[in-house]
Amino acid sequence: MASKFWGNSDSESDEDSQLSDHDEDEVIIGGEEAEKIADKYRIGGDSDSDESDDQRRVVRSAKDKRFDELAQTTVQIQNQININDWVQLQESFERLNKQLEKVNRLTESQVAPRVYIKGLVLLEDYLNQTLLNKEAKKKMSPSNAKALNFMKQKLKKNNQLYQADIEKFRANPVSDVESDSDDGENADDVFSDDDDDDLPEDRPEDLSDDADNPDDGGDWTSAQKKPKEMFPKLDPGQISWEMVDKKLKEIIVARGRKGTDRAEQVEQLSYLARCAKTPAQKLEVMVHVVSAQFDVNPSLSTHMPIAVWKKCVQNILVILDILAQYPNIVMDETSEPEVENETEKGADHEGPIHVWGNVVAFLERCDDELFKSLQCIDPHTKDYVERLRDEPLFMTLAQNVQQYVERLGDMRAAARVALRRVEHVYYKPQEVYEAMRKLSELQSRSGAAAEAGVEGEEEDGDVAMKGVTETKGPASFVVTPEIVPRRASFPSVNRKLMDQLVTLIYKAMAQLGLCAFRESLVMEAHNCLSELYAGGRVKELLAQGVQQSRWHEKNPEQEKLERRRQMPFHMHINLELLEAVHLVTAMLLEVPNMASSMHDMKRKVISKPFRRLLDINEKQTFTGPPENVRDHVMAATQALSKGDWEKAVEVIQSMDVWKLLGKREAILQMLRGKMQEEALRTYIFTYSPYFDSLSLDQLMTMFGLPEAQVHSIVSKMMIAEELHASWDQPTRCIVTHNVEPTRLQALASQFAEKLNVLVESNEKAFDARTGGGGLEGMGRRNRDTQDYADAAGGRRGGDFGGGRGGNKGGRGGRGGRDNFGGGRGGRDNNQGGYNNYNRGGQGGGGRGYSSGYQSTRYQDAYSSVGRTPYQTGPTAAGINRGQQAADAGGRMVSLSRMGSRF
Amino acid sequence: MAQYDLTAAVAPFLDRHLVFPLLEFLQENQLYSDDQILKAKIELLAKTNMVDYAMDIHKSLYHTEDVPQDMVDRRAEVVGRLKVLEESAAPLISFLQNPALVQELRSDQQYNLQMLQERYQIGSDQIEALYQYAKFQFECGNYSGASDYLYQYRTLCTNSERSISALWGKLACEILMQNWDVATEEVNRLKETIDSKSFASPLSQLQQRTWLMHWSLFIFFNHDNGKNGIIDLFFSERYLNAIQTNAHHLLRYLVTAVIVNKRRRNVIKELIKVIQQERYTYSDPVTEFLECLYVNYDFEGAQQKLRECEEVIVSDFFLGKQLSENGFVTIPLRDEFMENARLFIFETYCRIHQCIDIGMLSQKLNMNYDDAARWIANLIRNARLDAKIDSKMGTVVMGTQSPNIYEQIIEKTKVLGQRSYALTSNLILTSAAVTASAAQ
Fold first, then answer.
1. How confident is the model at residue A260 (pLDDT cuts 50, 70, 90)?
2. Residues of B with CB below 8 A from A829's CB?
3. Which residue from A729, A749, A878 is facing B405, i.e. has the nearest CB?
4. Tens of pLDDT along B302-359?
5. Nearest alpha-carbon partner for B394 in A730, A732, A810
6. Structurally, how many domains does chain B consist of?
7. Where are the alpha helices (DSSP H) in B278-357?
């Protein structure tokens, strides 16, 4: 249907255009529009049929898409030829060229695909045919004739470029399936593009020897032609300095203008560099070559073609060579470009020659481009590994630049370069770095050792992929504060910088966590990692991928921004390992914690994500054997909380991820030890209420720990008052003091606490009424509780929260006054006040508490507020009293929580 | 014990002259060979003006009567310079030595300067010369003279940098003259200046703090109230920071002071935190002792460390100060330390035990059975321990301290009545006042 429509509209426009002259413009526009519509419909039709016909969506790569477009345009050309519409043909031709550019950018090759050549051939044939047919020409409408003329010129010019290909095509027009041949050619391109590209813009003689394989003659001449045109009648020997200078200025002026072909500029400039007379001039031209190469890719989100990048690095190396060879040439950014013909001075010139340019800036740009390309390339392809192999090349360059800059004594610049180098190195484990350095040395020495180099590279790439996670923690930590202040001037903190900082900090946190884990500092490791995992956005925080958001669609702008923020794959921290470490540390902390506070109402939660996973796990009716990290940890948790440490250890040790951590045995050993300890603690927490005494020897055998350790652990628990027991030294037993209150006692104590709260609220009410400061000791107490209320309200943010906190007091106050002032019975008073309080608690405290619960920071503040007044009171009364007081402080908390339940 | 010797760590933070006592101490203790120490002394003296002393040492080191030529030259140079400085400072010194004239000085610095300038032609040059002269005197080892001049210089000095230098100089003089009371004042004055002054760089402030702490060690371990002083100074936040960033070895002195000082037990918790934080950079038997006792509850280890501590204390300049009484040489700090440390161990031990065998205990405390029994009995009598001795079984039985739930509840509710009462009475008072005012 689409093609029918399309055909119709086309013929219409054709007729129109033939009908009359005076509305020619309109007609053409109409034609265009029609085609646009047609285009739209065609696409629509395509996708429709895709979906409706076979219900299968073929995911095609961008490359394939581009090729399809090319092919489609060719088909269009064929159609237009059939109806002799030159206006349309001209458009199609232009589109064809544009699409070719796109394709070439994608494949990073210069060779035109076969489809394109086919289109050209079609056009050329038809053109010749039409030109021969004089009568038909005469019959044409003016617009059509105009287009025909235009095409005649354009096509000739264009086809010259592809003469060789066209001939090849003519020789063998009936090729096999076109896409096949395309692919084949593409593959060729990938491998041969070095040769192809190096040739045309050949650097000076010193590098030209590796370019002596001009198998692709056509390409060679065509590319070479343009630069040659600049000095048509001269061979390089006759060109003088002035000519080069003049030409250079011409080219520079053209730079950045609309319609200037950037790639062509590069070619022209490189040709000029070959012709340059003095080293200084050559340097000058080279500088422009490099800048022009950077200009080739104008977009911020896509990267520079790899081939161009490589050439660019080579060019910078050439610049460095020149600079090293002629130490009297000084390159700086401040010198006015070409004040007086400085570059004319020859190699033997004494005294400094100033040339404008900045190698460090070039280097940084190179680095950025490398980074961007790594961001863009799919990390699971061979391309990525190929690209990674360019890193040593860059490192060589950076080293050279640094040497040069240090020789100049410009320490600021040296620091900038060094920073770039550190950024490339810091995340690599030692072996990778060694391998890379070796490779780098090999490369810089000569091409002869290329084979060995390739081997090294292979290894390098592989190890880099695997070993990324094994980062040197301290190094990255050191790097972070280093990078942060130097990245950009701080006053202009822009969004991008902030994002980078955040990512860096989180990366450092992750590394630090892994490091602490390796050093068996469980608590520290968990603290580091829990922040990462708190929001469940690890990937985003580490810039290792974008989380799909369920709630709101991102607009393309945001997506682009995010993509630019991503870390290249080889710099990723292995998320599975990170998760394993996080969950295992959480388990080690949380299992005894859960056991200790099983019957306690003020349950302290150490790791929320872990608890949530555990809940989910417990809800399952059937649990299969563990598969992923979570399953493993959950299984281990189950075992550990039963005191079955052997099984827990077995499950944890069976995880694969540990092999990424290095020193695997030591880590497993450490884990084993930790789990034994925690199992012991859990056991004691869980079962000590049911024992009168526990034998030390029995504990030792149960948990496979040495006596000193068991003794130390249990003693610690006693001192920390986690275990109400004491040692009986002669019999080597732990004697428990069963202090767990009976139900009645617990209720009584709760009741006492509530009474306390009641009195407090009464006092507060009184204070609020009379303006505070009434009673001496009470005033202080009240202020403290008031603080608490404020803190609770403050959590809700802003003035509103504060108002709420105040409100609570006010409301309670009114209630209190009513009760007292009304002079009803004491019992009723109590009742009324009590209810009132509960309402207040529900409104302010209860809400505040539950909302504040999520944030640990708030909890800290909270507990300190809750406790201080009590502890400052009767602390001298001994340990038990102190404990009691602390308990009371804690219970007060739990009470206000209960308040919300009533 | 040389491995725990802190002289090398402490010396960089001290003045040249302050290092001499340390070296003397080392010489007495025979930790290093005499030759080494004498060489170190000569090196120290090379930059000072105490050339005569250096010559003496040189003689005893090489057992010769000859003195190298450069020392002789230096002597001549020092004497010459002394003359020059003396002359240039002479007018001011003669003025200051006349008590009648000094009376004319007032507390107003501006006035003083003007007065000197107008009446005695003593300008800033002379004042500067006084400073130089005092410094030179100090370099020559004439500490009392230097101290006097510096004191007077400070009243006239307008340059704040200089006045700090003068303060430091004065402190050094007082320390070397062993005037501990005056030195304590100087330390306080310096501390104020350092803390109040806004230094150009926090780094130099940190450095000065570190110096101050090191210098004050001399005072704290000699002055009567020093053990409180050191805890106060070192535990103040900024100085604790300085210790943690710059001078971890000072922890040894802090720990010792805390252990010895019975009244400052409350800081132990904080101290342990610091020790654990800094464990990776610094640890010695003294800090490890605390760690064993309060982190790992490893009593065997604590015993072991305690024995090492003894040696460390004896061989430390600041801690191992000897006192000779009636021909007996005692190291008071060591005895105090050992006694208190033992008490620490025992106390902690009792806290987690219900029943302890006295025989075992006596072993641990390095006493015989009867002594241990007596010691415990004393402790119980002084109400420092809630326990009973079961002599039949040979055990100490701790009193159970399980909290009584009834007591707890009574404790909680006791004050409620009173508080409610106070509340009502207040209420009545206010309502009465309100009605009264309404009636009026």
1. low
2. none
3. A749
4. 888 888 888 888 888 888 777 777 767 778 888 888 888 888 888 888 878 888 888 8
5. A730
6. 1
7. 285-291, 299-314, 332-351
More confident residue, A22 or B434: B434
B77 to chain A, any CB pair closer than 8 A? The answer is no
Contact A397, A367 (CB under 8 A): no
Would you give the DSSP letter of residue A113? P
Residue A788 confidence (pLDDT): 42
CA-CA-CA-CA dihedral for A722, A723, A728, A731, to nearest 10: -120
CB contacts < 8 A (A, B) = 100
Rounded distance between C-alpha atoms, residue A878 and residue B402, angstroms: 12
B413 touches chain A (CB under 8 A): yes
**8 Å CB contact between B300 and A708:** yes
> Taking CB atoms and an 8 Å cutoff, what residues of chain A touch B430?
770, 774
Tell whether B380 is covered by a domain.
yes
* Nearest CB to A775 within list B353, B400, B422: B422
Between A735, A778, A880, which is nearest B354 by CB? A735
Distance CA A224, CA A220 (A): 6
The first and second tokens of residue A895, run together, are 């009470």
Q: Domains in chain A, start-ordered, CATH in brackets? A: 62-169 (no CATH), 241-448 (no CATH), 499-547+555-689 (no CATH), 691-761 (1.10.10.10)
- B121 close contact with A: CB closer than 8 A: no
Establish if B361 belongs to a structural domain. Answer: yes
Residues of chain A neighbouring B409 (CB-CB closer than 8 A): 745, 748-749, 752
- Looking at the domain assignment, is residue B396 inside a domain? yes
Q: How far apart are CA A724 and CA A715, in angstroms?
A: 11
pLDDT at residue A478, rounded to an integer: 41
Strands (E), B160-266: none
CB proximity list for A239: less than 8 A, separation 6 or greater = A231, A275, A277
Non-local (6+) Cβ contacts of A892 within 8 A are A753, A756, A757, A866
DSSP B330: E
CB contact, 8 Å: B436 with chain A? no
Confidence of residue A529 (pLDDT cuts 50, 70, 90): confident
Q: Does residue B286 form part of some domain? A: no
Gap between the Cα atoms of A112 and A168, Å rounded: 12
Bridge pairing between strands A329-332 and A733-736: unpaired
Domain of residue B394, residue span: 357-426
- Mutate which of A693, A723, A727, A736 to test chain B, going by most B C-beta atoms within 10 A? A727
Tokens for A435, please give them: 């391998």
Average pLDDT on A299-311 reads: 76
pTM: 0.58
Per-residue pLDDT tens for A227-243? Answer: 444 554 455 556 666 77
